[in-house]
Amino acid sequence: MQDTQSINKARAIYYNLFANFFIPSSDIKNYFELFRLLNLLKDSSLDEASEESIKNILNLLDKDSNQSLIQEYDDIFHNPVYEKVRQTASFYDEGVESGKKRVEMIQFVAKTKLRRDEKRYFEYEDSVGFIFSIMSELSNLVALGEKQYENTVHCIFEQILNPFVDEFAKSIYEHKKANIYKELMVVLHSFIEFERLYLEVTKPLKKEKAKKQVTDNWGDITPEERERRERNRALKALGPKN
Fold first, then answer.
1. Could you read off the pLDDT of 64-74 as tens digits, one per residue?
2. Which residue among 28, 138, 168, 213 is the one 20 to 30 A from 159 at the CA level?
3. Where is this region: Disordered (predicted)?
């Protein structure tokens, strides 16, 4: 029992580490939290590769300012000069930013007592930052004895995170502006492999990258309006309960 509790606490810490890297914040307190988490994991890493990468991240991070990390994040995920890495499960599944995987995540979260803090987090529910954050909180609750969330944790990993995380990590690792995040992907790779063993979930088969298919007669509408209609279509297809 104690071993299981310790494992779930450690899993919560890892998920929290990844969440902090993928939920951008200008608050310097959040930045310093990264140092605390990295130092916590440094001497109890999953393997030699992740141990080395954690040390490299600590050396690469500016001890006084988060500006270089914020700039690297923007270059990888937002800068139009470079190929932007997408962060939602829906994109890797369907080629759209708001699709079935987002709806599934909304439904999973609705089964828990946790809710998205809209003041802190503005991205979709199937964005990696939100997924990591929810998995951290749920793993911690399981460690505290709330076993009813074990199945939710398993389902989110198996159905949402596992199918796309390898492709997502590879895109970051190979990105020309990735430096700190490249090292982070080594840590993420080791952790995901551990999660697959622990949760008994197999690595997904490689599939052809999803491409956005325009199979409608909506005509010339704005990207925002198209995204809204796609989300409504996904909701209708899944038949969510009111």
1. 999 999 999 99
2. 213
3. 214-242
Q: Is the pTM of this model over 0.90?
A: no
Domain that includes residue 75, residue range: 1-208
Count of CB atoms situated within 10 Å of the CB of 218: 10
DSSP assignment of 138-156: HHHHHHTT-GGGHHHHHHI
Instruction: Specify the CATH number for the domain of residue 102.
Output: 1.10.3480.10
SS (H, E, C) 163-222: HHHHHHHHHHHCCCCCCHHHHHHHHHHHHHHHHHHHHCCCCCCCCCCCCCCCCCCCCCCC
**What type of residue is 1?**
M
- Token match 């995987």: residue? 101
Residue 242 binned pLDDT confidence (cut-offs 50, 70, 90): very low
- Domain assignment present for residue 238? The answer is no
pLDDT band (50, 70, 90) for residue 25: confident
For residues 85 and 209, give the distance between their C-alpha atoms in angstroms, rounded to a whole number: 13
Neighbours of 191 (CB within 10 A): 22
Summarize pLDDT for 32-50 with one digit per residue, the tens: 999 999 999 998 889 999 9
Query: Rounded mean pLDDT of 19-40?
Result: 91
Within-domain flag for 123: yes
Find out whether 181 and 69 touch, Cβ atoms under 8 Å. Answer: no
Contact indicator for 57, 202 with CB cutoff of 8 Å: no
Whether residue 230 lies inside any domain: the answer is no
Rg (CA), the chain: 18
In a domain, 57, yes or no: yes
